[in-house]
Specification:
- It contains two helices and no strands.
- The chain is mostly helical.
- The longest helix is centred in the middle third of the chain and has 66 residues.
- It is rod-shaped.
- The N and C termini lie far apart (101 Å).
Length: 87
Amino acid sequence: MGDMMAILSFIMENLGGWAIGAVSILIGAVGLYFKGRGDQKRREQEKRAQARIEAMKERKEVDYEVDNLNDDDLDDRLAKWMRDGDG
């Protein structure tokens, strides 16, 4: 019975160490997966923010251009957007 306990103890110690290593690798892989997803989400947010900045710049340029048009040029420009076909 003593020999059997020694063998069982030996097996548990060796399997326990191997299991801890396997679980550690698994935890590391899961951590890397979530880090990658977080990095991707951050890059997408930065991309959207940059697109918003570019749209704001373009709108500001158009607003400036329209504000500086004389009345006739403004009428011509607005005529493009009318549905009556005059533009």
